[in-house]
Each structure stands twice: as C-alpha cells, then as structure tokens.
Design brief:
The protein has 631 residues and is mainly β. It contains 2 helices and 35 strands. Strands 13, 15, 17, 18, 21 and 25 form a 6-stranded mixed β-sheet that branches. The chain has a 5-stranded antiparallel β-sheet with strand order 19-20-16-23-24, with no helix packed on it. The chain has a 4-stranded antiparallel β-sheet with strand order 1-12-5-8, with no helix packed on it. Strand 6 and strand 7 form a beta hairpin. Helix 1 packs antiparallel against helix 2. It is elongated and about 185 Å long. The N and C termini lie far apart (160 Å).
Length: 631
C-alpha cells in the first residue's frame, strides 16, 4: 500500500541563469544539458545510475531522520516570459508522481522540490511536453539538508545551501542587480532597472539633458537639444525671438525694427512702403496734399504736373483766348497773343486796306462798312398824337476823338424822349435841351469804323395839321485839347415826315406799378360823364388801348386785385392818338407793400429819371400804404 504522496511545488526564478548545484550534500544524479528544442512528448533525464538512487539513510549526507529532497530543475526556458503550463514533470519513485508545472516568471528556470519518500528508490525522471519547448537541459539532484544547508532562511523553497541569495525570497542568484534587488527591466530596453537611470523609458538608460521620457534629440543639429530648443527645427535659433522660428531676427537697415516686421527692411527711414514705396520718403515739400514721389512739381503748391507752362508758372489763360499766359504775348488781350504793330489791346487791323494798321492810320475810309455820315430813318407818315421811333446811324472814321456829339431836332411842338440805352454803343450821356431835341454824347476813344446807332421816340402834336414836317441834326467830333469840334457833319437821310389827318381817336398807354414793374392782366375801363363806355385788359407788356370817334372829356381807370386803383382824366380835342401811361406818379400802389418796396420807391424819388421818377407826395402815398395796409 503506497503512502499518500505529499507534493510541494516551489517555483524559483533566476532571470535566465541556471541554479548552481554545489554546496552541502548536493548530489547531481542525472542531466541533459545541451540547448534543445523538443516536444510534444516525453523528455527523459539521462545518466541515472542503474538500479536507481535510493534516498534515506543509505547516504552519509545527513544524519538519520533528517529530511531529504529531490530537486528537478528546468533551465533557460524560451520564451522566458511565458508560463509553460503545457509541461508536466514526473518523478518515478515507488510509483510515478506527476508534478504539474505552475507559474514560471522571468529567467526561465523552474525548480521543483519533492519532499518525502526519502527511503524510496528513484528510477527515473522525465518531463512531458504538450507543446514544443526550447530549453537548456534538465538537472535532477538528490539534496539532503544537514545543519549547515538544510535551512531556507528566506522561505523561497530553496535551501540556503543552494540559494545564492538566501535572504532574498525573490532570488536564488545575485544576478545583475545583486541580492535584494530584482533584476527587473520595467521598460524592456535590455537594461535592468537597477542600472537604468530611466527604468520606465525604453529609449533611455540615463536622464541625459532632457530627463527621462524626453529624447535628447537635436533635430536641427544646432547643439541645443530639442527639449531646451524653442525652435527645434531652426538651426539658427533656440528662441522664437520677435520674428518666430524659421525667420531671423535680423535688422538689415538698423532702424530698430526687425526685418520680419519691417515693410522696408533695407530703408532705415521707413518701416512701411507708404505711398511712395521703400527707399523714397513720403514727403510733401510744397504742402499741396500730393507727395513728392507723385508730384511732378514738388516745389509748386499750385501744380502737380508741369502742364504747358512748367512748374512754378500757372497754366492760366487770363484773357480766355485759348493761349496760356506763359505763351501769350498779350495775356490780357483775348484777340491777340503777340503785341504786333499796334501793341496789346489794340488790333492790328487795316480796315481800309492801305497797308497801314488802323492804329497808325489817322483817317480811315469806312464807307464800305456803312454810312460814314450820319443818316436818319423816319416813317413815311404819321397821325396826330402818334408816337414813333427815329433812328440815326453813323460810322466813326477815327478812334482818336475825345468825344462825339449827336444832336437831332424834331419839328416844333413835338416832344422827344431819349435814354442812354437807346444808343449802341451806349451813350455816355443823353438829354433833351428842348422838348423837340434829342442830344447824345459819347466819350472815346472808340475803335475805328465803329457803327453808332441811336433810337429815340418822337410824339406828334395832337393838333398837328396834316402836312409835311422837317427834321434837322448835326454830328460833331472833338479832339482834345481843342474845345471846338475837329469837324462836323449834318445828319442826312430821311429829312421829312408827313402827318395825315386822323379818322378816329385812340387812347393808348402802359400800366405799371409805382416802382416800374409791368402790370399785366389789369382791368382798364374808359369812362365818359361817369359812364363806362369801354373796358380792356392790359397785355403781358402792360399795354392797353381804346379807339373811338367822339371828342370830349374822358377818364381812364386801371385796377387789379391786390393793388389800389388809379384814375386819370384826358381831354380829346382832335381825331388823334393820345398817350396816357400809368407809370411813375400814376403807377399803381400795392394794397400792402413791404418795407423793401417802400425803400425802392424812395430810391426812385431820389435817383429816378422820368417817367419813373417819383414825387415826394407819391412816396408818402406808398409809405402810408405800408403803414395802413389793406388786407
């Protein structure tokens, strides 16, 4: 009857080293030591003596009664980190005792100890492999433990006699790190932690410059490791500086602004191109708002381009003749660009074609330009009371006259009216020395061969008898300093006008405001003996008229909304044309004149000329209307 077999499995790791089998009472019985790859199947331990080995007191290794142990070691398992759970170790004593392999850790040495049956005879030992295993031999030993080596101080299952680290339960050999220190390689870099300055960094065994976990790489090969290099890919910088990595902090123009921020890196006076660009100052020398780089006249505030006259000279055409002053010999004469013979302001005209310009020709023949002598134009016939126009035209043959005077006389009893605007060129002065006389004066000098035209108005007497009536006149030229005229000419042309007998009575006139403004659309009513016998409306020029055949006394009244009406009386003693104007003293006064209107009337009172000149009483009437307006 076999006794129950008590098995104790102790696994000891030696980090790839074979456990030595020397020391107290150790007897190597059999081994297989060559590096072998075997399995699956049975692998036997060789060299066991014939008949086997018997334990117990047959040996002198220990005193009787002391325990013996059988040891079975499997060396250098590969892979070392794998637990060969597919392996079974078998001792053949009084029966086969199977010892299943448990956990194997780093080192690849499995150590099995069998205690008991010391008096049994070991006849064999083998391992049964379920999968292929690479190993470096099996060793079978019979190890009695006496007083010197039978203890296991660290309780790791290996007697101190066989334990290279008897006080280290985790090691049986000092290994690389020595007893008490595990031969662990945490980061798997081939250097044990005890010798690895960076035990958790597989890429470093020493902290180096950058420390564990950070490579001591120098990507840009500038001598500064990347961990201390803020520009690890820029061999020229270890700090970004102002411009950043990859860009030098150069200041080419030494203006205090690095090139990377300097829009003009080679211009010490600019950091931005501005309007003119780098290398050119944005200066406006003449302060005209256009910088010199774009100003073709940088010193001329009035020009940005030379133009026709060049910088510093205005392209002005003072006389508007199309030629600029800088090229115009007569800048104030629109008719000349060169002084010529006569000088600026005087045309180099040779009116009579004699080869001498008019400016040097004292007497000109202007006959082909118009009448050289004054010529009058009259209507063929007129009616009593009719007003008609008389035209006198003449051509001045010389421009050196001090003055020209024209006097033209109508028949006795007829009345003449003139004004400066009735002459062309406009007369310097006009007057009527007598009721029948029109007098004009022009002060020269005038250009040679200028044609003068005058138009004045003549009123035939209402009681003029039918017949022929004669006009007379004279034109005088004066040269200073002589008071007497240089020469005189009688007015020629039409000398007479015929007055025909009237067949009806006509009352004609114009309606205006007291200030001379035309009053169109006014109601004009003709009264006789208080009875209205006719009414008309003034036209756009303010004109009105009545025609009838009965002689007698009449009244004409003019009225319009917004104005105070005005009435005039007239005695009709002949079949003639009568003029009755509502102007000046008989002009209509507004119902509510403004202050400016009153002032205008005061001006006519002081400076006006007939028929617009106002009397003092008429101005007072206007002032009263302003003071007491009709609303």
């Amino acid at each position: 009857m076999k006794k129950a077999l008590a098995l104790v499995l102790v696994l000891v790791l030696a980090l790839g080293l074979v456990i030595p089998h020397v020391g107290c009472g150790v007897q190597d019985i059999g081994d297989q030591t060559a590096m072998t790859t075997a399995g699956p199947g049975r692998i036997d331990v060789d060299n066991i003596p014939g008949g086997g080995v018997t334990g117990g007191t047959d040996h002198d290794f220990c005193e009787a009664g002391e325990p013996y142990e059988w040891h079975f070691l499997i060396n250098d398992l590969d892979p070392k980190e794998a637990a060969p759970a597919y392996m079974t170790a078998v001792f053949a004593v009084e029966g086969e005792v199977s010892i299943p392999l448990e956990t194997v850790t780093g080192g690849g040495v499995a150590h099995y100890t069998v205690a008991g049956y010391l008096d049994a005879t070991l006849v064999g030992a083998y391992a049964y492999l379920e999968e292929p295993v690479t190993y470096n031999g099996f060793i079978l030993s019979h190890a009695p433990c006496d007083d010197d080596c039978g203890d296991d101080s660290d309780g790791d299952g290996v007697p101190d006699c066989n334990d290279g680290c008897p006080n280290d339960p985790n090691k049986t050999e000092p290994g690389v790190c020595g007893c008490g220190v595990a031969d662990t390689d945490t980061d798997g870099d081939g250097t044990e932690d005890c010798n690895d300055g960076c035990p958790t960094d597989p890429n470093k065994a020493d902290p180096g410059v950058c420390g564990c976990g950070t490579p001591d790489g120098d990507t840009d090969n500038d001598g500064t490791p990347d961990c201390n290099d803020e520009c690890p890919t820029d061999a020229n910088k270890t700090d970004p500086g102002v411009c950043g990595c990859g860009t030098p902090d150069d200041d080419t123009d030494n203006d205090g602004t690095p090139d990377c921020s300097d829009g003009c890196p080679t211009d010490p006076d600019k950091i931005d191109p501005g309007v003119c660009g780098c290398g050119v100052a944005d200066t406006d020398t003449d302060g005209d708002g256009t910088l010199d780089c774009n100003d073709q006249c940088p010193n001329d505030p009035s020009k940005t381009e030379p133009g026709d006259c060049g910088c510093g000279v205005a392209d002005t055409d003072s006389d508007g003749d199309g030629t600029l002053d800088c090229n115009d010999g007569c800048p104030n004469d629109p008719n000349k660009t060169e002084p010529g013979v006569c000088g600026c302001g005087v045309a180099d005209t040779d009116t009579d074609g004699d080869g001498t310009p008019d400016c040097n020709d004292s007497i000109l023949d202007c006959s082909d330009l118009g009448p050289g002598e004054p010529t009058r134009t009259l209507p063929d016939q007129v009616l009593p009371g009719e007003r008609f126009q008389v035209t006198v035209v003449f051509t001045a043959p010389y421009d050196g006259f001090h003055a020209i005077a024209l006097t033209d006389v109508a028949p006795d009893g007829w009345d003449v009216s003139v004004n400066v605007a009735s002459a062309d060129p406009e007369a310097t002065a006009v007057h009527t020395p007598t009721a029948e006389t029109a007098a004009y004066v022009w002060y020269g000098p005038y250009d040679v061969c200028v044609v003068f035209t005058t138009v004045y108005e003549v009123g035939v007497q209402v009681n003029a008898e039918p017949g022929t009536y004669t006009f007379g006149g004279i034109l005088k030229y004066y040269i200073e300093p002589h008071p007497a005229p240089a020469y005189e000419q009688e007015v020629t042309g039409d000398m007479q006008v015929r007055v025909e007998e009237g067949e009806t009575v006509k009352i004609e006139g114009v309606a205006k405001e007291v200030d001379g403004a035309i009053l169109s659309g006014a109601a004009v009513v003709l009264y006789q003996n208080g009875e209205a016998i006719g009414n008309v409306v003034s036209d756009e020029s303010g004109n009105y008229g009545f025609e009838f055949s009965e002689l007698g006394d009449y009244e004409v009244m003019v009225s319009k909304a917004g104005f105070r009406g005005e009435t005039q009386s007239i005695s009709v003693a002949a079949l003639a044309i009568y003029t009755l104007d509502f102007v000046g003293a008989h002009g209509l006064i507004p119902d509510a004149p403004s202050m400016s209107y009153v002032l205008a009337c005061i001006s006519l009172w002081k400076f006006g000329e007939p028929p617009l000149q106002l009397s003092t009483s008429r101005v007072l009437d206007v002032t009263s209307a302003w003071t007491y307006p009709i609303t």
